[in-house]
Design a protein that fits this description.
Radius of gyration: 21 Å
Largest sheet: 2 strands, antiparallel
Order of helices and strands: EHHHEHHH
Strand content: 5-15%
Shape: elongated
CATH architecture: Orthogonal Bundle
Amino acid sequence: MAGRTSYLLNGENVAKARLAILDDRERPLSQQELANRVGIHRVTLAKIESGDARVSLEVLERLAAELGKSREHLLGEPEQIDEFERARERMADALDSFSEAVDLLQRRIRAHDGEKAPA
């Protein structure tokens, strides 16, 4: 998708966090199991762990939740954290603009309905 922000994670941090989680047989969590939980292919996770794949904000958040780590920890690099913060600020600004537009539209609808009401 054009214009969609993606993030290059610190693959070593992702792999270490995955290996620190034990499955029900007390073995480190496999790439396949984590990929299933996050909703991505195992090959994609392998590429993430080797630093060869970028991920969407949604995948970053799902990985962070499954691994019990912060997004910042998975990003691992200050410039990536700054990029994440800028993207979050842009999303908050867009949400504010959208809310303002909805409020204006609701006021106009109420004003229009008031004009049609019988006196």
